[in-house]
Amino acid sequence: MSGAGGPELLSYREARERVLSAVRVLAPETVPLIEARGRALRRPFAAAHALPPFRNASMDGYAVVTQDLAGASAAAPVELGVGEVLPAGRVASRALRRGEAMRIMTGAMVPDGANAVVPFEDCERIEAGGRERARFARPARHDENIRPAGRDVREGDVPLPEGRELSAHDLALLAALGESRVGVGSRPRAAILSTGDELLEIDQALRPGAIRDSNRPMLAMLLEECGARVVASERVGDDARAFSARARRMLEDADVVLSIGGVSAGDFDPAKAGVADLGGVSLWRVAMKPGRPQAFGSPLGRLFFGLPGNPASVACTFEVLVRPALRKLQGFSQIERPRLRVRVADAISSRAGRTDFPRVTLEVRGDALWAHVAGEQVSGHLSPQSRAHALLVVPDERSALAAGDEAEALLLRWPESGNA
Fold first, then answer.
1. Quick one: CA dihedral 97, 101, 105, 110, positive or negative?
2. Angle made by CA atoms 147, 108, 129, in degrees to the nearest 5
3. What is the predicted pLDDT for the residue at 419?
4. Which residues does residue 125 pair with via DSSP β-bridges, in sequence order?
């Protein structure tokens, strides 16, 4: 808890450890395959059969025995009678005999006895006396154009690890293996509580001293993007009692509650006073920029994040603390954004003992990614966050990064053209 009634001072690493240690992974659920994209795989399974499940042709052509074509050449071609025609889905009525071929289409089961498929473009189809024959002007290689059973996945293999974020391609693999329902992480229920007498709804006309609430829709979309379901999104004024009453009701209905604003040192900060009534929530001063004033706790076994009010601070705190917690709740093995090694294009000042997260754009230059500061790093400005491709990480042991220095960056999105 906060010492002597004041906020607790934490490094970014300590804050992250506190948050993640409070996360209890939600129970999994089983959903239809079509609803599983983007979810965390929570039920590892063994493949019930091989993929492909049988030897099949990888090209349209003729199934043959390689020994029959051993001496074939343009000068001395070999002709074989065609015993059967095998479209995909039809199984040969018998094994292929020496001295004959079977016409076969891509994906069709290769008949027993055949050990190669010669594509149509490498041979000639001949009609003689109402019967089909095939002329070959070259030898065939053993297993040419044949996909063996189990070459992709063997029976009993576990092709996807637990915690994987399921893509459409993963789901295609599961579909091929007959998995119509998938065990995945449950989507956390999230609630947003915005504070401030100065805030307007998006469609309200501006008035002196007021601004539109851009944080609430931003957070709703960020929450949905990382798998949560927003079950409530509301605003209260600068009233600590109203704040605590509404936050308590939200904690009863949601797995995660995020409040916006009211946690700093102002005279009218409702969250700063209201969190005391929630129980188990501490005020923090985290040595990070942006996003120093925060609140966090796990009342009723739920997660409560009291975020700062400035847009850059909200976005940054969400990315480096809230998002990893939400991902862990769902059982993802990868809980944060991809980390890239970049070179710093602009000198960046910081302060030893504080972790900074400047918003940057990325440029591909030669064989390196270069990070450019995306405008003034003012926590109230929205356009740098809109332009940013990544958050640069200035670790707490550094007081500055010089132009040309290597650093890590958390990737938010790739540049549209590969350049900033």
1. positive
2. 120
3. 54
4. 134
Residue 290: cis peptide before it, omega within 30 degrees of 0: yes
The dihedral over CA atoms of 274, 321, 362, 418, expressed in degrees to the nearest 10, equals: -110
Q: Which pTM was predicted? A: 0.88
| pLDDT at residue 2 is higher than 70 | no
CA distances 266 to 34, 221, 262, 269, 365, Å, are: 49, 28, 8, 6, 45
Topology, domain 3-27+186-330: Molybdenum Cofactor Biosythetic Enzyme; Chain A (3.40.980)
Domain ranges of the chain: 3-27+186-330, 30-51+151-185, 56-147, 339-411
Question: What is the CATH number that goes with domain 339-411?
Answer: 2.40.340.10
- The upper half-sphere exposure of residue 393, i.e. CA atoms within 13 Å in the direction of its Cβ, equals 19
Q: Would you say residue 171 has pLDDT above 80?
A: yes
Distance CA 207, CA 210 (A): 6
Tell me how far the alpha carbon of residue 45 is from its chain's centroid: 21
pLDDT at 418 over 60: no
With beta carbons less than 8 A apart as the criterion, state whether 145 and 118 touch.
yes
Distance, in Å, from the CA atom of 398 to the CA atom of 353, rounded to the nearest integer, reads 8
Token pair in block for residue 279: 């129980």
Report the candidate in 374, 369, 346 with the shortest Cα–Cα distance to residue 359.
Answer: 374
Peptide bond into 148 cis (omega under 30): no
Quote the tokens at residue 309.
Answer: 């009010």
Cβ atoms of residues 11 and 286 within 8 Å: yes
Residue 398 token pair = 């550094």
Closest CA to 135 of 121, 155, 152: 121
Contact yes or no for 262/269 (Cβ under 8 A): yes
Fold of the 56-147 domain? Molybdopterin biosynthesis moeA protein; domain 3 (2.170.190)
Residue-wise pLDDT for 88-109, tens only, equals 999 999 999 999 999 999 999 9
376: helix, coil or strand?
A: coil
User: pLDDT for 357-416, tens place per residue?
Assistant: 999 999 999 899 999 999 888 888 888 889 999 999 999 999 999 999 999 999 999 998
Identify the bridge partners of residue 356 per DSSP, sorted by sequence position.
289, 394
